[in-house]
Amino acid sequence: MARGDPMLHIRVTDELKSRLEESAQFFGRSMNAEISQRLEESLYLSKKAHALEGNTHLTDGERALVQSFRNMSPDERRAVLALLNKLSSAN
C-alpha cells in the first residue's frame, strides 16, 4: 500500500465476497481494484441519475429509461453500459 493511502475496513457476507472474487478474477483485477471500480461506478451512476431527475428537458420515455436502469441489478447495469460503450465507439 502506498504511503498515505486511506484504509477502509468493511464486513461483507461470504456470498458477496465470493461474487467479488469471481468478478475480480474475470476482469483480471485485484480484489481492491474490483471493489474500488464498483464503488466508483456506483457513485458516478448515482450522481448522473440524480442530475437527470432534475432535468426538465427529459421526455417521458427518457425518464422511463432512467427508472428502468435504476431497477436493474448491478450486473445488468454494467452489461448495458458495456453495450452502449461498444455501440458509441463503433460510430
What is the first-to-last residue Cα distance? 40 Å
What's the average pLDDT?
A: 83
- How would you classify the helix and strand content by structural class? mainly alpha
SSE ordering: HHHH
- Looking at how many chains there are and whether they match, the oligomeric state comes to single chain
Unreliable parts: none
**Tally of alpha and pi helices:** 4
Characterize the biggest β-sheet: none
Amount of beta strand: under 5%
Radius of gyration: 16 Å
The residue fraction in helices comes out at over 70%
Structural topology:
Layout: H1 14-27, H2 31-53, H3 60-71, H4 74-90
Helix pairs in contact: 1-2
Task: Walk me through this protein's architecture.
Helix content is 73%, strand content 0%. The chain is mostly helical. Helix 1 (14-27) packs across helix 2 (31-53). The longest helix has 23 residues, at 31-53. The model has no long low-confidence stretch (mean pLDDT 83).
Brief synopsis:
The chain is mainly alpha-helical and 91 residues long. It contains 4 helices and no strands. The model has no long low-confidence stretch (mean pLDDT 83).
